[in-house]
Structures are given as structure tokens and as C-alpha cells.
Predict the structure.
Amino acid sequence: YDKFYMATLFTATLLLLLTFISKPQSLPTLKFQHHSKSLHFSTLLVGCQDNFILFNRMKFSTSFIHRSVCNNFRLAMSTSKSSGDVSKQIKVLVPISNGTEEIEAVTIIDTLVRAGAEVTTAIVGEHTSLTATCSRGVKIVGDKFIEDCIHENWNMIACPGGMPGATHLRDSKALTSLLQSQYAANKYIAAICASPAVVLSHHNLIKGRKATCYPVPKFTAMIPGCSNSAVEIDGTLITSQGPGTSLMFALSLVEVLFGKEKAEALHKEMIA
């Protein structure tokens, strides 16, 4: 029977490897324990497409199996979850609406995705679909409506500017609630162009911290001591001036979320 078991295990190993290469997400969880030179399988279900083989209570006791096959099984079973563990990802909410500045919105979204963030684009305002028509006519399809985001936790909320997009963000009760919760928890809030003035200052979310915005009097007057910097970082508040500073702004968001090394790598990669 030893030869039979050796042949059976060899077949099972090949099937697992084929499954791992073609459809790694379909691999079952394999629980095993080993003592000395023995490998015990309680129940092993091996799947390759629609074909399955069930092995029940099999025991092998050769050092060859223990050294090579056991280690290969352990490696195959431990590879899949590290990159797909969403709970450990940085989550960023980017609210957009009709009239949002498209350069700012897309630059924020694209750069943060490149950095490895899980970015959710949320549609704000009276919409019957998940499509927003931006300030220059570009259409962006969102992931969900802002009302569907209120029970989630966000590492950062980043508001693009543009008019009248910023006024729609300002008037959204759901977004206002999210921003106020973010502020109370001392978590990152970011805004660019008109949004630092029209959205954040309107809802008292700047409160003495340094901030910048699109440099025209009607906006700068809304922020006491408004900075002239292209990007201003004051604690968990990050603000910027407009479309031309949007990449610098987005890379600053990467730096505060992922660190300077990641931001510099992206800066080089994007030839910024």
C-alpha cells in the first residue's frame, strides 16, 4: 500500500499545483499538523476545475514526503491572503458631483491607486445614476452613492474642487456627516481648489489651522490667514490650490498615508 499512497499523493500534489497556477482563489483551506517525520491529513479536498478527489484520514511516514511535499503544501497554502487583505489597506473616499474639477478628481484617484490605496469614488447630489458630469464635460462613473459610504471607516476623505461641484459637496448632509466624524477622530481630510473654502471652511473644519485654496478673493476671504502655498499640510489637514497643483497635492497625500519613500518612488515613476 505504500506505493499506492505515494502515487496517490503525487497525483494530489500535481492537482493542487495546477489549481494554484490556474485559479489560486479556488484552493481550499488545508489544515494539517506534523509530528516528527509524519504528515497527517484529516480530510483533504483537492480541486482542479470541476474534478475533485477526496482523501480521508491518510497517513504518510517517509522523510521524503515530510521534507519536500509538506513544505510545498505549506508554501501553496500560505501565499494568497497577504495581498488581498482589504482590512489592512488604506481606504480613501473621493466624493465627486456634477461640476467637479476633473483634473483634480482623476489625479487624486489615479495617484492614490498607484500607491496602493483602496479608493472609493462616491457620487454626491441628486443623481439617478453613478455618473457625474464634471466642470468641462468629462463624465466620471463613481463606485457608489455617498449615502452608501456613511457607515464605513476612512483613512482619508479627499475633496476635489471645481464649481459648482464644491457647492454640491458642501450641501450634502451625508458628506458633511462623514467630514465631521473624520474631523472629530483627527483623521485625514484633504481638499483642493474651491473645496477648502466652500466645503471645509463653511463647516468649520479648518478652525485655526493653515490652509490654502484657489487663489481668488472670493475663496481666500473664507479662510482666515489663507496660505499662498501650492500645498499646505497642517496636521491631518491637507489643502492645495487648483488643477495645476493637483499632482503635487496627490503625491503629498501619498506621503502622509504611505510615507516619504513611497511618494518619492511614485514621483520618479510618474516623471513629476
